[in-house]
Amino acid sequence: MEDWAFLVPAALFMVSMTITPGPNNVMLTASGANYGFMRTLPHLFGILAGCFVLFASIALGLGVVFERYPAVQSVLKVVGSVYLLYLAWKIATAPPPQFRTEGARPLDFWQAAAFQFANPKAWVMGIALMAGFLPESGNPWLNALLLAGVAELVGLPCIALWAGFGTAIGRVLKSATSWRWFNGTMGAMTAACVVMILG
After folding, report:
1. What is the pTM of this model?
2. For a tag site, which of 31, 119, 163, 168 has the least CB within 10 Å?
3. Where does the UniProt annotation locate this protein (predicted)?
4. Do residues 188 and 71 make contact, with C-beta atoms less than 8 angstroms apart?
């Protein structure tokens, strides 16, 4: 068990990182409100899966590319920012549920998973997690997978809180006007994450 002691501080670190506001949590709140908790689950699990693959990849060498070539970081920031602005526009202009067409749907599993590779906050979390808590001794593959796995287990209830919070808000909103204000606010908050990314 002493060999696994590194997982405890890593788990506490991930609580602080995943429960605080960020692009994923703002979008989960908006999705929970607009589509309900159950329909938001693919989005939620897509975030976890994408982060797991990203974090493990960083530990096994992808992070070196990110640190060695600053241009990659700049490109990632631009791509992530453009995509976030697109998502922010979609959230802000989403119609109230009573006017929603049948084709309207939340972000799916694969879209949410893929977004993590363009999400600078996920990269920062992954690099900090692996640089700060990955042991130098032991099997590097096993340690990387354990650390990434614990990070996602800890992150699950944290991000689920945001989806649940959004679901609760969705039950309170009644009028089309209140829905437009809410979606506009969520869109603005998503767009505001771009300032954090480019800052």
Report:
1. 0.87
2. 168
3. Cell membrane
4. no
